Amino acid sequence: MSAATGFKIAVVGATGNVGREMLTILEERGFPAAAIIPLASRRSQGKEVSYGDKSLKVRALENYDFTDTDICLMSAGSKIAQEWAPKIAGMRCVVIDNSSAWRYHADVPLIVPEVNPEAIENFNRRYIIANPNCSTVQLVMALKPLHMAATITRVVVATYQSVSGAGKAAMDELFEQSRAVFVADPIERKIFTKRIAFNLIPHIDSFMEDGSTREEWKLNAETKKILDPKIKVAATAVRVPVFIGHGEAVNAEFARPISAEKARELLRHAPGLMVVDKREDGGYATPYEIAGEDAAYISRLREDSSVENGLAFWIVADNLRKGAALNAVQIAELLLARNLLRPKAAGKQA
């Protein structure tokens, strides 16, 4: 497809961690774009962001007309998404939103392309498609092939989530606090409820009435919507002093027997997954090693003898890429691959 008949893509939240990653991935993957428009709040207007070897000037979201834009990749938070997604979609511009604002609407597809690509067929009910929570993405990618083979009944997952999931200010806080520890400066806390440097915080997002946090609730609700509403999920979400990459320790129970050997074979052949599972020192994947990678990595796979049919394993993935930006771009690619969207410019030419 030539640039003249390519798609016009807007990226809302282009100055944030995920927005910048979206721009990088669009260019890396050669997305057929006639134009890329970076958008943010008015205070970011005029800033420059990178798109390959080009610098693009950021425009103000509130002043932009989406009439001739085909796809809007949005990563600007739930409040912005709630206000703007329906307006943008009303101009027949497909919104692929990274926030939690639209994930739980019955008529909005919630998609991980390697797991439930068929859900995209209903995108035109609202012209809004939801990107799952970063911790959900890697979890359901690992669960899907196992569920198809032996039917998962229950999942217990503890997440170890990097500070980049809370934005650039959170990354800055980890850096500044770590520096302060070494030079004996006072520890300043702005983003997190407790000191994050050299610490763990078992609290992500707001608390709910049952004692769970909303992050833990998301893992439950999104796994059910994407994979199977019958699966029971118990989650504990923990923020850890790591800059990029989420880890998850998973225990899965099955309706039918499945061996670790069979599970390893299934996971090795599943799309978007890599298995690094040597039972030796260093024979596993960690967040540091997989930063910048597209795949979700599976390690420490073994049978769980505490239940009748159970497996235990470790998953790690780059939360900014597969957990957010890459998944959004892959959803856009899926629209094209299934011939569900044509460039508006091509219609005008015709």
Short description:
This protein has helices at 17-28, 78-89, 134-150, 168-183, 214-226, 260-268, 287-290, 321-337, 344-349, and strands spanning 7-12, 33-40, 48-51, 54-57, 59-60, 71-74, 94-97, 128-130, 152-161, 232-239, 246-254, 273-275, 296-303, 310-317.
How do the strands and helices of this protein lay out in sequence?
Elements: E1 7-12, H1 17-28, E2 33-40, E3 48-51, E4 54-57, E5 59-60, E6 71-74, H2 78-89, E7 94-97, E8 128-130, H3 134-150, E9 152-161, H4 168-183, H5 214-226, E10 232-239, E11 246-254, H6 260-268, E12 273-275, H7 287-290, E13 296-303, E14 310-317, H8 321-337, H9 344-349
Parallel strand pairs: 1-2, 1-6, 2-5, 6-7, 7-8, 9-10, 12-13
Antiparallel strand pairs: 3-4, 9-11, 11-14, 13-14
Overall pLDDT confidence: 96
Strand order of the largest sheet: 5-2-1-6-7-8
What is the CATH top level name of the largest domain? Alpha Beta
The level of helicity is 25-40%
Number of domain modules: 2
CATH topology (level 3) name of the largest domain: Rossmann fold
Q: Strand share of the residues?
A: 15-25%
Distance between the termini: 15 Å
Number of helices: 9
| Uncertain stretches | none
Label the structural class: alpha/beta
The major pleated sheet works out as: 6 strands, parallel
Over all CA atoms, what is the radius of gyration?
21 Å
User: Secondary-structure element sequence?
Assistant: EHEEEEEHEEHEHHEEHEHEEHH
| CATH architecture label name of the largest domain | 3-Layer(aba) Sandwich
Shape by Cα distribution: globular
